[in-house]
Amino acid sequence: MSTASINPGLSPAGSGGGGGSGPRILLVPPELRLAAAMRLIGTQTEDPRGAAERFLQAASDHRIDLSLMYCSQDPGAPDEVREVCLAVLGTGRTAMVFVSGPRKESSWMHGARLTRRAGLVGAGEQSERVGLIHRVCEAAAAVRTAEKPPPVLAQTLLETRESEVARAFRVAGFLQLGDLAYMRRPVQREPGRLLELAASPTWPAGLAVRSVAELGASGEDEAAVRSRLLGALERSYIGTRDCPELCGMRSLEDVLDSHRSVGVMDPTLWWLVESRDGPQGCLLLSPAPEQDSVELVYLGLAPAVRGIGLGATLLGFGLRRLYDTALAPEAVSGHPHVRGTGGVTCAVDTRNAPAMKLYRRAGFERVGLRMPFVRALPSGEARP
Q1: Which of 77, 75, 66 is nearest to 33 (CA)?
Q2: Phi and psi of 149, rounded to 5°?
Q3: CA–CA gap between residue 152 and residue 374 (Å, rounded)
């Protein structure tokens, strides 16, 4: 189904119609990129041009592809933009989607020709957002490159105050996954009882915990280690309370690739829990040097090993390793990017009461709250 059929008030650029009175959607041309960036990220600031210029420079510096940026226009005003939407393709067959929100009044006199005409605020403005989101999702799903397959999942993260934008994503077919609590724990905080016990952990009978680095040193090749990690993810997803709606929306291979892309993947900080029956869970920690932090990428256990205190022991073990590393004269893992980190961060579904309790007991404090939304893209099929 095309965007035009979903939203008859929007016309694709170049689709004919002789320049009718309705707004049209088009790929942002180079000459409008600054104005589009101002509309996308600058209109809630006192200096939209400066914010937009910094955004474009950061995208260039970090090689972030902005080719999937679309805008809506009046047919008779080709040098103006009204609403803007951008998709950025990521690892693990994902596309992060951003859309412009309500304008801040003070932002309209800062040097770019952005339109603020009577009758464009309210239902019409929201309709344009929805149409743009549809168009960008269609464009993202159609991307074909030699380097990576097309995305199968579109996603966005919104502040809780962004109610209008949230409504637009819902109308455009996105599903909200509860709320995500962003939590942080200082690495160099005094160890406390949890980390004291984790200095020499006692694992439950029949279980072994080894790092990816240890598995490699013991002779496991990369394919075998990857298979173990996939098995750990698969079993830990059974009955999960952490964004359960995501299960089946991507393959396990795509999920693992997403995990590997977070920060710097350090094999000494990725641990597998195994029994004679195979992988039973994992703890994945990845340093994020640019944020001077370590991301707790994933902690999950299979049903067979839940409810025995293993989650707390495993988390304490990982934090203890980070604590020792941060205080060591040289990085324990041999990777200097781990030393001196400012803290450990993670994101937790607030509906996951056991996980929230675990992290609070381990010294994590909530520092933010976001609303996650996802939508399956037509290029992919749901997996069991």
Answers
A1: 66
A2: -75, 165
A3: 10
Tokens of 168: 């637009």
What SS3 class is residue 130?
helix
pTM score, two decimals? 0.84
Residues in the chain where the model's pLDDT stays below 70: 1-21, 104-123, 188-199, 326-341, 379-384
Cα–Cα distance measured from residue 277 to residue 93, given in angstroms and rounded to the nearest whole number: 31
d(CA 2, CA 12): 10
Q: Could you read off the pLDDT of 348-377 as tens digits, one per residue?
A: 999 999 999 999 999 899 999 999 999 999
Residue 183 exposed, middle or buried by CB count within 10 Å (0-12, 13-18, 19+) = buried
CA-nearest of 366, 331, 325 to 345 is 366
Residue 25, classed as helix, strand or coil, is strand
Rounded Cα distance, 252 and 273, in Å: 18
Torsion angle of alpha carbons 152, 157, 163, 169, nearest 10°?
-10
Residue where the block lists tokens 């003070």: 106
